[in-house]
Structures are given as C-alpha cells and as structure tokens.
C-alpha cells in the first residue's frame, strides 16, 4: 500500500508561504469558519458595522490589521488534533528556520545560476520578498474582498462571496462562497467555468497516490446548498 503525503509534509511546504506557524494558522482558520462574520471571527470586514466608515475600517482589519492587534486563538480548543501530533509540533517549531529557507533558497539559487552577488540579491528581492508580498496580499484579499464583494450562489451563514477576478491569482481560493458553503470539499470552483488550480493539483496528487480520502463535490450536496435565486451581492 502506498502512503499519502502526511500532514507534516504539507505543513513544511505550507510554512514556506510564511503565514505563521502551522498550528496557529489552522486554529485561526477554523475559528474563522466557526464564527465567520460574527463575533469571534478573527478577521471579518463586518466587525465594526455596515456604514461606509465602518466598512473601510473593517476592510483594513480583515486584510491585515488583525495580524497586528490580534488576540491569540486558543489552539487547545481549535486545533487539539494538531497539538497531539508530534510531527506537526516539530514543523510548528521549525517555522522560523523554514521561513529563512524560503527567503534564502532563491537567493542562493540566483547567486549560483548567475555566479554573482547581483544575481543573489535580485533573486532574493523578486523570488523572496516580492513573492511573499504578492502572495500575502492575495491571501489577505480572500479574507477582506471575498467577504465583501461578489456573487453568493450558495447558502452560507456568513458574507462570503465568489470574486472571479482573483480566481487565477488565488488558485481557486476566491470561490469563497462555495468554500464556506462546503468547507471540507477539495474543489472551491464548483460551478461551470470556475477555474480552480488548487483542485487540479489535489487531483494530480490523488492520482499519484499522495493524497487520499479527498472529498470532491457531490451534485446532491451542491444542489442542497444552492440558492434558488442565484445571486446577491
Ligand atoms: Zn477556509
Ligand atoms: Zn472566509
């Protein structure tokens, strides 16, 4: 029997994205789903109200403000399974080292390929700093824009929305209304023509035997969650 990629392997690659140690990332994410757009959500743009001023403040808070004034999510409550896993604990502790690798590896590669300090510096800038900055803004946009603007074809308890302009850059994450309607489903772009690169990648991993027990969209589940009047914004 072939073994799938373990959570800890995924955690190592996820840590290269530099979005925090895996246990707090997962705890924040689960808390977001548990309380989306209600009190307790770590990053809802609706936190301060619905006036233009409150939404401007809320946008900033959901986009990146919450990272600076955050109360720590209780990992014992939201991620006890990860806390109980020694491999995940190790990946969690490695986060600073993995961050360093993620920033320095492109610099080393650039330096070796061009055999120059200038190559190392420009690779560090573009493949290190700029990559991380762009990635973060895309992720943060899912938290801010995708809880404010877009189509809401599915019933969800929150304000999550599908925002097509971010579909490619976010690799499918911006089909966020679908994600909140069915969070354990591996494909977010579940409607016709919705590109979802992450789902494609998971499918390839599944074919290779690296990903197992993947939950794909089921027509009857989708139909149950679909609104009869197909859109609001
Ligand atoms: Zn989610
Ligand atoms: Zn969300």
TrEMBL record:
<dbReference type="InterPro" id="IPR015876">
    <property type="entry name" value="Acyl-CoA_DS"/>
</dbReference>
<keyword id="KW-0560">Oxidoreductase</keyword>
<dbReference type="InterPro" id="IPR005804">
    <property type="entry name" value="FA_desaturase_dom"/>
</dbReference>
<protein>
    <submittedName>
        <fullName>Stearoyl-CoA desaturase (Delta-9 desaturase)</fullName>
    </submittedName>
</protein>
<keyword id="KW-0408">Iron</keyword>
<comment type="similarity">
    <text>Belongs to the fatty acid desaturase type 2 family.</text>
</comment>
<keyword id="KW-0443">Lipid metabolism</keyword>
<feature type="transmembrane region" description="Helical">
    <location>
        <begin position="94"/>
        <end position="118"/>
    </location>
</feature>
<keyword id="KW-0472">Membrane</keyword>
<dbReference type="GO" id="GO:0016020">
    <property type="term" value="C:membrane"/>
</dbReference>
<keyword id="KW-1133">Transmembrane helix</keyword>
<keyword id="KW-0812">Transmembrane</keyword>
<feature type="domain" description="Fatty acid desaturase">
    <location>
        <begin position="21"/>
        <end position="188"/>
    </location>
</feature>
<keyword id="KW-0276">Fatty acid metabolism</keyword>
<dbReference type="GO" id="GO:0016717">
    <property type="term" value="F:oxidoreductase activity, acting on paired donors, with oxidation of a pair of donors resulting in the reduction of molecular oxygen to two molecules of water"/>
</dbReference>
<dbReference type="Pfam" id="PF00487">
    <property type="entry name" value="FA_desaturase"/>
</dbReference>
<dbReference type="GO" id="GO:0006631">
    <property type="term" value="P:fatty acid metabolic process"/>
</dbReference>
């Amino acid at each position: 029997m072939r073994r799938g990629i373990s959570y800890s392997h995924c955690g190592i690659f996820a840590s290269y994205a530099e979005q925090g140690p895996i246990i707090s990332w997962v705890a924040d994410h689960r808390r977001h789903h548990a309380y989306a757009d209600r009190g307790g959500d770590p990053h809802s743009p609706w936190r301060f109200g619905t006036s233009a001023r409150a939404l401007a403040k809320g946008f900033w808070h959901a986009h990146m403000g919450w990272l600076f004034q955050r109360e720590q999510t209780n990992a014992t409550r939201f991620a006890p399974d990860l806390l109980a896993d020694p491999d995940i604990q190790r990946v969690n502790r490695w986060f600073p080292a993995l961050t360093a690798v993620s920033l320095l590896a492109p610099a080393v590669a650039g330096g070796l390929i061009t055999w120059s300090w200038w190559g190392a510096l420009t690779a560090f800038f573009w493949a290190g700093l700029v990559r991380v900055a762009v990635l973060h803004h895309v992720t943060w946009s899912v938290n801010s824009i995708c809880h404010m603007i877009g189509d809401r074809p599915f019933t969800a308890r929150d304000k999550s929305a599908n925002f097509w302009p971010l579909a490619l850059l976010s690799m499918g994450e911006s089909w966020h209304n679908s994600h909140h309607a069915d969070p354990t489903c591996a494909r977010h772009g579940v409607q016709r023509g919705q590109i979802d690169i992450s789902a494609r990648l998971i499918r390839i991993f599944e074919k290779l035997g690296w990903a197992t027990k993947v939950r794909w969209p089921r027509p009857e589940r989708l139909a149950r969650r679909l609104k009869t009047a197909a859109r609001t914004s």
